[in-house]
DNA sequence: TTAAATTAGTTAGCCTAACTAACTATATAC
DNA sequence: GTATATAGTTAGTTAGGCTAACTAATTTAA
């Protein structure tokens, strides 16, 4: 067992329990983790088109259609026409903006608990490792 | 954006591209990443029952049933009766053992490429961070 | 200038990888 | 000896992706 294999084993092993807990946190807001990822992206990076959301999340366009339409239905986001008649810009609704702040506050303590006992410096290193892998994998 | 939130964002962002690439690596063996996770567990930790596999992978029993039955169908694993008539122990077949060695060799270079440019020390730290989170989340 | 190619988003239908509820068969506890 | 617990299975559901094929709008090029 090399240290690389060990890392990826551990990476995968963490996924299910993490997503499960995250979904429990999000349940009061009728959100799943994938929908939350979209809200967070719009909050952090501002309004973006469907294609831009797809590129950022490295998922396909039809998957974005489903996610965003659900968020529209919930009243958390709205769309406006983009730079031409084809493009639609997705942005948080006023209600959505409030909600994101509220959820982020709640998740803050969940994340802190999950990382309890881990030095800040190690969290930073781990984040950089994950970012580097993303870069390496996506060419 | 706290460093904890940043870490988990990055964690989630990596998942899809990683699993996608891993599945491409496994495709010649008619395996998906979840089935590979079972083979690797049996290889690393020896024969185990369905319940033990479920506990280790933190998935439910019916999910294990499906995974293992597929692996039996492929001829990669076999079952023997366990310590009583209810329990079945799952173990790699001779063919399965060979295959695991072969796949591990192939994945070794995939993993090394994915971690290219990351110091060994940082990989270790990141692995420990992931392990600690697993522990914290699963109580 | 109009025909071909490209781009943004949608629809329909599929798949993986999980889940819960309810079941059978066996084993254990009271 | 009956009630309870445990191992595994079956049936049906779900989240969260996917591809193929479509419409409408835009750009390229002949």
UniProtKB/TrEMBL annotation, chains A, B:
Residues 4-135 form the HTH marR-type domain. SUPFAM superfamilies: Winged helix' DNA-binding domain. One of its GO terms (molecular function) is DNA-binding transcription factor activity. Keywords: DNA-binding, Transcription, Transcription regulation. InterPro entries: ArsR-like_HTH, HTH_MarR-typ, WH-like_DNA-bd_sf, WH_DNA-bd_sf. PROSITE patterns: HTH_MARR_2 (PS50995). PANTHER family: TRANSCRIPTIONAL REGULATOR, MARR, TRANSCRIPTIONAL REPRESSOR OF EMRAB OPERON. This is MarR family transcriptional regulator. It comes from Lysinibacillus macroides.
